[in-house]
Write a structure and sequence with these properties.
globular; disordered C terminus; 2 strands; disordered N terminus
Length: about 450
Amino acid sequence: MSHTTETGEPVKRKRFYHQLYFWVLVGISIGIVIGLTAPGVASEMKWMADLFIKLVKVVIAPTIFATIVVGIAGMGNLAKAGGLAFKTVMYFNVTTVFALAIGLVVVNIIGPGRGLNYDVASFDSSAAAGTIESAGEASGTGLTGFILNLVPDSFASAFVDGMLLQVLLLAILVAVAVTMLGKRAAPVVSALDTFAKIMFGVIKLVMWVAPLGAMGGIAFTIGEHGSAILGSLATFMGSFWLTCILFLTLVLGPICRLAGFSIFKYLRYIKDELLIVLGTSSSETVLPRMMAKMEAAGTPKHVVGMTIPTGYSFNLDGTAIYMSMGAIFIAQAFGIDVPIWTQIGLLVFMLISSNGAAGVSGAGLVTLAASLTAFDSVIPVAGIALIVGIDRFMSEGRALTNLSGNGLGTLVIARWTGELDRERLAYVLDNPKSVDVDDLLDSDAPAAPVRA
């Protein structure tokens, strides 16, 4: 069998050393070697990962703004757009509830914090001082502060500060206004579409720095915290990674089957993006690649433009698992028995607070601390100091789970709305090499591969 596009042209396959994922793997391998053999040098290499992520973040907010406006305005129907937005947010919040719940179940069963027997009065929380301070700023005044924080101080400040929830709100307001203008707004939509493609082009260029970012990130992690995994916190880290796998197989797996495809084929389809995220600990680095791949898999452009960017604010499954497990782990470490109803209350609060995690620097740890601030009378927020040192090891799991859930949710929502090209999806999942992301980002519209 040969692979062709809809135009009948054969798909050009790149040699493995021309593929980005190959060089990311090389970067990760070199980083591991440096971390193990020269930990002193490795501990100074974090700037490489930070630089790469900063390069990506600088264009993420405008990219999300443009794609959402184009996606909603492209429907030409506010009722249809509102229905899609409602289904998107509802689906993402339901899966987040399952993520929080499965995290609570696993951490209660395994009990990784039991036996540590720390004393609250004598516990040294200095390692978490910066995180707790940031959490206080992020938490605001509870639910009221969360709602008020949705609105930026100015139109530009949302982009300057990188607050994705605020960018999302502005994009929806602008999209509604543009749609109400009708045909007069066509030039605006076209301009924003072109602008989004320019941003995709910038990110595509930046992505070739990903191997260096991955090398620096992995080297720093091993060089700075390598010994931490030999301690008692290893059980907690293992429990977290196990829970992420259970969530993918026991929650998202059945959802995939109901939607008519295999989660394992889906994960194989996005393996390049998963490798990039593994090295950089940030799912934002592959935003345009994921959007291009979801379109190539048979999802309409307007659905992708709505669901993928929205997922970056409302579908942080890995972060949700981390928050629920981290809270109970801290309680166990101090010998605190948290009643089931308090755990349910914590789950509900985290469901709200996790929606703002994408706009917070060091999202997982800071948002966990912000949530614990509201329950400090039960679980001491100072206990954050226990997991500061191993947070980096868990950030990869958070990012990988978040990315997997976002792409999967896009396909499921397209199937739910009856707009998924199931034949096209089946083909690309069976033949993932037929989709070249670099070619898709260069073209105006992803070509649909078909059987020869």
